[in-house]
Design a protein that fits this description.
With 288 residues, the protein is α/β, with parallel strands linked by helices. The protein folds into 2 domains: 3-211, Rossmann fold (3-Layer(aba) Sandwich), CATH 3.40.50.300; 214-286, Alpha-Beta Plaits (2-Layer Sandwich), CATH 3.30.70. The chain has 10 helices and 14 strands. The chain has helices at residues 41-48, 71-74, 90-100, 105-115, 130-143, 160-175, 187-193, 228-233, 254-263, 278-286; strands spanning 3-12, 15-25, 30-34, 56-61, 64-65, 75-78, 148-152, 179-183, 197-201, 204-208, 218-222, 239-242, 245-248, 268-273. The strands form 3 sheets. The protein has a 6-stranded mixed sheet, sandwiched between helices. Strands 2-1-4-5 form a 4-stranded antiparallel sheet, covered by helices on one side. A 4-stranded antiparallel sheet has the order 12-13-11-14, with helices on one face. Strand 7 (148-152), helix 6 and strand 8 form a beta-alpha-beta unit. Helix 3 (90-100) packs parallel to helix 5 and helix 4 (105-115) crosses helix 5. 29% of the residues are buried. Bound molecules: adenosine-5'-triphosphate. Residues 12, 17, 35, 37-43 line the site of adenosine-5'-triphosphate (ATP). One of its GO terms (molecular function) is ATP hydrolysis activity.
Length: 288
């Protein structure tokens, strides 16, 4: 186990943002954190990093509490807003962190090549584009060789090239055994990176391992019939239509649909289990 959070509660004024949240993250796990705006994803990350006062709870990495400076050797943060010194170069930033953690110059060079920032690392940050700043921040977040990285909306504002590169980097870090907690609103990207998606709602965390295996509806393809609309009007079971395909509701068994369709002489062409993607799961969970 790398990160352990126990019974974490955080309030802003009287509003409880995090309600008694507990979870663990193991070596090499990528967890996707998904929730609508304003739910508490950033607050959770900031609380883990002791950037927020909390009402109660314990947060440890490798059994070291976040009140201890050693905690920060093992955990890194890629925040959604990058705080960089405009008049310094990228290299200055890397040297600064390397000095604090007593790292060798060689380790800085390795990170520069891994992230691919060599061509501009000696320019001052004020000349960097948003994506270049994000790359520098990523380099800073992996310089200390953390066991886990918290990434708060890391894909925001990145062009397709930078997005592909960051996805590739996440896979590289994963292959090196680094754990990651990634919050994003981009469900397609997340689905590409991991099957372990956690949702947040009303201050609670819903941990659904392999969430994509949640029950998927069936697609019943109907053969063309003149009176089909009329026939389906009387169907007592809930359904959606997509062209000539009837999508079942997961709360009812497919047998019930087939039974009714056959009894009412609706001709069936084929029956398939549709693939449930993350957007479907999200819509179902948040009732969108
Ligand atoms: N410093 C603060 N003082 C008071 N309330 C705050 C403060 N920071 C955040 N909040 C409130 O806490 C709630 C959670 O905010 P948070 O930024 O953690 O959400 P989020 O899920 O990260 O949202 P987004 O997806 O928009 O980034 C929101 O209702 C927000 O208004």
């Amino acid at each position: 186990m790398v990160l352990q959070v126990k019974q974490l509660t955080k309030k802003y004024h009287k509003k409880t943002i995090l309600k008694n949240i507990s979870f663990t993250i193991n070596e090499g796990e990528i967890i996707g954190l998904v929730a609508p705006n304003g739910t508490g994803k950033s607050t959770l990350m900031r609380a883990i990093l002791a950037l927020e006062e909390i009402e109660s709870g314990s947060i440890t990495v490798k059994d070291i509490a976040n009140s201890h400076t050693d905690f920060f050797k093992y955990i890194s943060f890629l925040p959604s807003d990058n705080y960089l010194y405009m008049h310094l170069t990228g290299y200055d930033h890397l040297s600064f962190v390397a000095n604090i953690y007593d790292l060798e110059k060689r380790e800085i060079e390795e990170v520069i090549d891994l992230i691919g920032i060599r061509s501009y690392v000696h320019q001052s940050v004020k000349s960097y584009s948003y994506g270049m700043r994000q790359h520098l921040f990523t380099a800073l977040s992996i310089l200390t060789k953390p066991l886990i990285i918290l990434m708060d909306e890391p894909f925001n504002g990145l062009d397709p090239t930078s997005t592909i590169e960051l996805k590739q980097l996440i896979r590289t870090l994963h292959a090196r055994g680094i754990s990651m907690l990634i919050s994003t609103h981009n469900l397609d990207i997340l689905e590409d990176l991991t099957e372990t998606i956690w949702f947040m709602k009303d201050g609670e965390l819903f941990i659904n391992d392999h969430v994509l295996n949640i029950d998927a509806p069936y697609e019943i393809e109907l053969s063309y019939q003149d009176n089909i609309e009329q026939l389906l009007k009387n169907c007592p079971l809930p359904f959606r239509m997509n062209d000539n395909r009837l999508l079942t509701d997961v709360a009812h068994s497919v047998e019930k649909y087939l039974e009714w369709l056959i009894k009412n002489e609706v001709q069936i062409h084929s029956v398939n289990r549709s693939k449930q993607n993350l957007e479907d799961v999200y819509r179902h969970f948040y009732e969108v």
